[in-house]
Amino acid sequence: MSLDLNTMWFILIGLLLSGYAILDGFDLGVGALHLFTKSDTERRIMLNSIGPVWDGNEVWLVTGGGALFAAFPEVYATSFSGFYLAFMLLLFALIFRAVAIEFRSKRDSLRWRAAWDVSFSVSSVTSALLIGVALGNIAFGLPLTVDHEYTGGLVGLLRPYPIVVGVTTVCLFTMHGAIYIVMKTEGDLQARVRSWIPRLIAFFVIGYVFTTMLTLTFLPHMKDTLMQYPVLFIVPFLNVLAIANIPREIYNGRDFRAFLSSCVAMVLLLALFGIGMYPNMIYSSPVSEYSLTIYNAASSAKTQQIMLIIAAIGMPVVLGYTVSIYWIFRGKVKLDAASY
Amino acid sequence: MDVAILARLQFALTIAFHYLFPPISIGLGLLLVFMEGMYLKPKDELYHRMTQFWVKVFGLIFALGVATGIVMEFQFGTNWATYSRYVGDIFGSILAAEGVFAFFLESGFLAILLFGWNKVRPRTHFIATVMVALGAHFSAIWIVVANSWQQTPAGYHLVQGTSGLRAELTSFWEAVFNPSFLDRISHVYMGAWQAGAFLVLSVSSFYLLRGKHREFARASMKFGLALGLVASTLQLVTGHSSAQGIAEQQPVKLAAYEGHFDASAPATMYAVGWVNEREGQTYGIGIPGMLSWLIYGDRSTPVTGLNAFEPEDCPPVNIVFQSYHAMVAIGMALILISLLGALYWWRGKLWHTRWLLWILVFAVLGPQLANQLGWLSSGHDIAGTVRNDLSVAVHPLRLLAQREDPKRTGGHCH
User: Fold this and answer.
1) Rounded to the nearest 10 degrees, what angle do helices A110-140 and A255-277 cross at?
2) Which of B279, B277, B278 is CA-nearest to residue B317?
3) CB A140 within 8 Å of CB A285
4) According to a count of CB atoms within 10 Å of the terminal CB, is the N or C end of chain A lower?
């Protein structure tokens, strides 16, 4: 492994997706918990906890997609056309979600609000599930042809391993969202969500352990890079520590630190996934020679260099105002005239 | 119906639906800067309420734009995978730049715009409004770069890649400032400003007609009227400049706009007409030699006609002709309406002239229709080498190969 342009872009896209996971992860998780709240006010608090940030969070997905298109057009083309129906479902979910958030509180009618509440929650869970299923599939391997095409349908993607990864993703985002809610709310709602967290952590850990066992048993190629560079074992080690730290911080009432732990755990989880995949981007099975790698799927060196300049200029600025916006909207949610 | 037609239809529908929202975000974003600027300086509570009202509308439109926009970014891959492999080197980097430079800016500061009224000082809030308006304008730049690169590609060369021939970037700035970019972006901006201005005019007129929120509606209307008049008038300038550029860069498109078949003859400009594609004839009311005059300043200069091109390069002429002419007619009507509005306002009669207010209520459809028709007529031509839709994905190589060899021989469009 050398730090060439292709590897740098592999890491950068991993970072963009990590940004997406930790940010949109919590607002998808809030969506998953939305229906478990009791009153209209509680639901408005849930929505307004993510109100100022959810569409900015989705931009990480859009930019990640754009960066994938630019740096590895073959991966973009194969995965987006190959996962056609799955991605259409994801798009439906994301659209319904956006519209639900915007429309829900615009009218007083109970039915109106209940309908948008359900579509917000269902579409949040569906989005999380589909993202996990997609990751599971590119790791498990697709029957790619020599032209880098996947010609199977949606049913071909719904295999046990990807579904386990999908369910684990839902558990992870729900746990992450619950911690976020605890951080952003107070009183009765906060106490109730806090009491759910141990169970949510347990669900995620069960999913994580199960996924790891399946990976080690059925996906030997995911171990190659790790075996070759044993120093990388630090990543799963730190990952376990970060996860273990979450219940500790929650128990001590340090909600912000619990949320940070959860963010770190997610980044390390994706890093582990990236290390497992490297240098493949879409694994081909049964013919592993047809896999899309960071070399045979890349754009020209010129484009990757220019993109690096764009990222170097743009991303520090983006990080700068993302942080300042989260800072401006820090603290507990208060409903006012501008709220949803 | 084959799969390719279905995919084209789907793409056309989603992109048309998406394009209802961003132009409003751009135009309304600019108006918000003026409205809030007015509040900031004399601290007039009226402008404060006005800004807060339009910010809510803006937030709704923006969210729909984001939701429908994610579809657009995914669809290049889901529907045109072959095309994506072929142009990803250039197209992808432009889309990524849009994400980094525009979307983050817009969505980040939108949070302050929508929810920050009590969290930040008025001046900071105003800066956020400016940033959101800038972000909306930036995003138009990048997406128009992508589109105009498809129409008049530059800064690339063809290379044998891992899965066939592909276009690779040779110069980023040449690709960005490709020959038709400046004409297209200015035309798109004016269309977007019109969309925002006429939305404000429509809602305000409706309030006046209903006798509600009079003070607010009158004040909002002045902003809409000013921007509507400026944008509608400038649209004439950018449209003219676009046509001159097209005459040079994409002659088959210009010929199709006016249904001009003769390979080399002075060209008529029609007000209305009908193209008989089979016979290669256009019937209608027009001024002979007017197109030649507009493009070359001389009524007798020949304009290259459709018969000078290969049949496979010909667009469906009548659709292009009709959508182009409808767009121009709407553009003219919008100039007239905004002039009338300004005149009646100047004479102090606008608030009571109910027929004009009713026209303004429905004029909101004008910019939307014209924007859609503009893309329809512009996207339907084939001479632009790489188009927004499928024919490219079917045989991009043929089209690009032709681009490499501009000398076309024989054949005609009917």
Assistant:
1) 40
2) B277
3) yes
4) N
Higher-confidence residue of B14 and A267: namely A267
Domain that holds residue B351: 198-249+251-383
| pLDDT tens string B161-199 | 766 778 889 999 999 999 999 999 999 999 999 999 999
- Using an 8 Å CB-CB cutoff, list chain A residues near B163: 74, 147-148
Minimal Cα distance from B113: which residue of A? A52
**A68 neighbourhood in chain B, CB within 8 Å:** 92
Cβ neighbours of B41 (radius 10 Å): 9
Same domain for B167 and B202, yes or no, is no
Same domain, B346 and B395: no
Mean pLDDT, rounded, of chain A: 92
Instruction: Test A102 with B60 for CB contact under 8 angstroms.
Output: yes
Q: Are residues B127 and B273 in the same domain?
A: no
The number of distinct structural domains making up chain B is 2
Q: How far is A238 from chain B (nearest CA, A)?
A: 30
| Locus of tokens 């044993």 | A230
| B145 and B23 together in one domain | yes
Give me the interface pTM, i.e. the ipTM.
0.86
For residues A194-206, give the mean pLDDT: 95
Quick check: is B84 in a domain? yes
Q: How far apart are the first and last CA of chain B?
A: 24
Identify which of B67, B76, B103 has the shortest CB distance to residue A98: B67
Q: Where are chain A's structural domains?
A: 5-328
Given B60, B111, B116, which is nearest A56 (Cβ)? B111
Shared domain check, B330 and B310: yes
Which residues lie closer than 8 Å to B43 by C-beta, 6 or more apart? none
Token pair belonging to B4? 């390719």
B156 contacts chain A (CB < 8 A):
no
Question: Which among A55, A70, A338 has CB closest to B88?
Answer: A70
| Burial (CB count <10 Å: 0-12, 13-18, 19+), residue B215 | exposed
Residues in A touching B95 (Cβ below 8 Å): 65-66, 69-70
Do B110 and B240 lie in one domain? The reply is no
Task: Report the chain B residue with the minimal C-alpha distance to residue A150.
Answer: B81
pLDDT in tens, B356-369: 999 999 999 999 99
Strands (E), B210-336: 264-265, 269-276, 281-287, 303-304
Q: Do B92 and A78 touch (CB under 8 A)?
A: no
Query: How far B202 CA sits from the closest chain A CA (Å)?
Result: 21
Task: Collect all residues of chain B within an 8 Å Cβ-Cβ radius of residue A300.
Answer: 89, 159, 168-169
Could you say which residues of chain B have pLDDT below 50?
A: 381-412
- Does this model's pTM top 0.95? My answer is no
Residues B173 and B110 reside in one and the same domain: yes
Confirm whether B192 is domain-assigned.
Answer: no
Considering the domain architecture, whether residues B356 and B397 belong to the same structural domain is answered as no
